[in-house]
Amino acid sequence: MRPKIILDCDPGHDDAIALLLAHGNPGVDLVAVTTVVGNSSLPNVTRNALAIATVAGITGVPFAAGCDRPLLGHGETAPGIHGESGLDGPALPPASFDLDGRHAVDLIIDTVLAADPGTVTLVPVGGLTNIALAARKEPRIVERVREVVLMGGAYGPGNLTPTAEFNIAIDPEAAQIVFAQDWPVTMVGLDVTHRALADRAVQERIAALGTAPARFVLDMLEFYGGAYRDTQDFPSPPVHDACAVAYVIDRAVLQVQRAPIDVELTGTLTRGMTVVDLRPFVLADEEALTSCTTSVATGIDAPRLWDLLVDALERIGDSRP
Ligand code: PIR
Ligand code: CA
User: How many whole angstroms separate alpha carbon 20 and alpha carbon 28?
Assistant: First the structure.
């Protein structure tokens, strides 16, 4: 059975690449796209999502806007990495279809309840506000969802703070709710996403496709790669969110370890940190671990990720007339 994916995103350059991968890969069925404040304001990330849909020729998939702020506090955006628009670099075409009239939380709930149990995978790649609210508003989705594969967190260094990754830190309460639900959650964190960088060889493969969507990706990588070089000293940019989608397509992309995960809410230096219990005696207790619903990615096969991305772009082709 081809997994159905709901992509909950805040595009965002790597979100855009995740969306293109989910659309272009024939092994997964993209059934809804929802947006949440994060890399930029909700209006910006929603406009960006629709622009990407236009570029890639995505039709017949509902897109809905969600929360414009976190559960608590004011949140934070990332103009230093993604620009003021949230997707600086490429020219953004106007939307070619209307948003779904529902709030993202309702679109998520309706989509999960309408599908057969165990068929819908949630792929949150921004703050977890929409997903947490969906679980609270309609708890029956928790047992119906096949699994949650989220990009966020880290057991090593963070990126927003020394200990916290952006997607978790912008709404830690929501993240704690999502990790605590009784559904399988896989955390695809910076520990692996920082090990797959879209270097020159990858960019040359994309350039060789010669299509409009491929050029759009190159324009994105040029801006985003420059920002990563200037602000974080990266030689080439990571494409965080695409790693989560790739894992739904192909388990072999990531090495994953079952482990207890919780989110720090109160630490003065550690709010938003994902605390992953990797103590050897915990991991050795196989019986206790079987009732653990959380898993963490610890390794990545980057060449496999790039093959999937190039293949998806090739299949998308020149989708616009
Ligand atoms: C990436 C992001 C936010 C801030 C920085 N510095 C880099 C976004 C990406 O879209 C990804 O989902 C996650 N948050 C990585 O932290
Ligand atoms: Ca994102």
Answer: 12
**Domain assignment present for 321:** no
Report pLDDT digits (tens) over 140-180: 999 999 999 999 999 999 999 999 999 999 999 999 999 99
Decide whether any atom of ligand 1 lies within 6 Å of the 151 Cβ: yes
Residue 320 resides in a domain? no
Q: How many domains does the chain have?
A: 1
Determine the distance separating the centroid of ligand 1 and the alpha carbon of 151, expressed in angstroms: 9
Q: Which domain holds residue 284?
A: 4-315
Cβ partners under 8 Å of residue 80, min gap 6: 227, 231
Kindly report the length of the chain.
321
Residue 311: give its domain's CATH number: 3.90.245.10
> Ligand 2 centre from 276 Cα, in Å?
21
61-90, pLDDT tens digit by residue? Answer: 999 999 999 999 998 999 999 999 999 999
